[in-house]
Amino acid sequence: METFGCSASIADGEMISGLLNKNSFRPVGEPRKADVNIVVTCTVKSVTSHKMMHRIKILSSLNIPLVVAGCMPKTERSLIENLNPKASLLGPEDLIRTVETVETTIKGERSIHLEGSTLPKLLLPRMRRNKIIGIVEISSGCLGDCTFCQVKIAKGELTSYNPISIKSEVKDALKDGCKEIWLTSQDNGCYGKDIGTNLSSLADSILDLKGDFKIRFGMMNPEHVQKMIDKLISVMGNEKIFKFLHMPVQSGSNQVLKAMRRFYSIENFINLAKRFRYEFPLSTLSTDIIVGYPTEAEVDFQKTIRLIKEVKPDIVNISKYGSRPGTQSERMIQLDPQIMKTRSKKLHMIVRDIALQNNSRWIGWCGKVLIDEEVRGAIVGRNFAYKPIIIKKQIPTGSVLNIKVVNATYACLVGEPT
């Protein structure tokens, strides 16, 4: 079992594994020893798509039955079939057909389930990748029409899940020992618009649950944040919610945003970022930038640089534009790859400098930290602002202890127990 992509994709992998485990399948650590191999794919970026193609080629060369799940079967089915015409396909909304698909595939027959179930991906068995983190998907699809985005092709229009079922999913995660709850979706900001509710109301309901846990909100687009900023700020004031906001701006140019069909302005984004920082001075602001969108002139790129220097986000996820099959921008004249490479490199250097400045402000801070993972032998904890803090001491995940920040890099803080 291999899983790639966003937190929703990770959750899909956990549920696929859980459904199989419940039906007497057991994971093995080596693809060559498996009766069937499963890969949960992501195709949001062209570089990721190439990685998926490589993995499918490698797994196909083993001549072991293969199931390709996740977004790629919906967005690039023909590509998978060219690589392995025998591979079974399982769409991101068809997890309920997991066991049926795997059993059919093991028999040497091909199974294709891409129709999209109307059942929400909640209250299914799980094998959690991280026992401390409960990933709860709150909706599928979105209300956007971004010209560059392939995820809409895979997941369609917004379908918000029932808040009572979501709360039950969170209860199950807490019973399993999870200390961190990720509320995730393609766009958390538009949650509930199709069923008469919203993200802050959902969070209020979950906060009623007993237990020592924290909630991390997933990505939400500025278009929807600006319509609920007061309610969002109010609910984020609760100590059980990480002071972390992932709000992707994508470009610093209003002209490029218009071409992307992003329905907000740079001025909107700046005001929202300032409001968040005013309410929570010690917090984490994360954003995304696409470098080299087809209509991005040099003057547009310079506006992006000015925006980043003004707002100073703590995290900037930079992606070089790559056209995705089936999207509107695929038909546009693409920029010279060398231009994108040069711009991306320049922006990376600026972002690293800003991140180091921001992180350095935390040196000397003391407070509680939740140990939530071990990465390549290093213990990682998160404070109230969801800052990653490396601790050079073996501490069990799930522990909460007092930490003093003694150093900082552009990527993380370094702490010591006090």
Outline the structure in words.
With 418 residues, this protein is α/β, with parallel strands linked by helices. The protein contains 14 helices and 18 strands. A 5-stranded parallel beta sheet has the order 1-2-3-4-5, sandwiched between helices. Strands 14-15-16-18-17 form a 5-stranded mixed barrel. The radius of gyration is 22 Å and the shape is globular. It starts with a strand and ends with a strand.
Ordered list of secondary-structure elements with their pairings:
Elements lengths: L1 E2 L3 H16 L14 E5 L4 H15 L5 E5 L1 H4 L1 H7 L4 E3 L7 H9 L5 E2 L19 E5 L1 E2 L10 H5 L3 E2 L2 H13 L4 E5 L14 H9 L6 E4 L4 H4 L3 H8 L7 E3 L7 H7 L5 H14 L4 E8 L6 H14 L3 E6 L16 H24 L5 E10 L2 E5 L5 E4 L8 E9 L4 E5 L1
Helix pairs in contact: 8-10, 13-14
Summarize this structure as a short list of keywords or feature phrases:
single chain, 418 residues, alpha/beta, Rossmann fold, OB fold (Dihydrolipoamide Acetyltransferase, E2P), five-stranded parallel beta sheet, five-stranded mixed barrel, 14 helices
Short description:
The protein has 14 helices and 18 strands.
Largest sheet: 5 strands, parallel
Number of strands: 18
CATH superfamily of the domain at 2-113: Methylthiotransferase, N-terminal domain
Which stretches are poorly predicted, pLDDT < 50 over at least 5 residues? Answer: none
Strand arrangement, largest sheet? 1-2-3-4-5
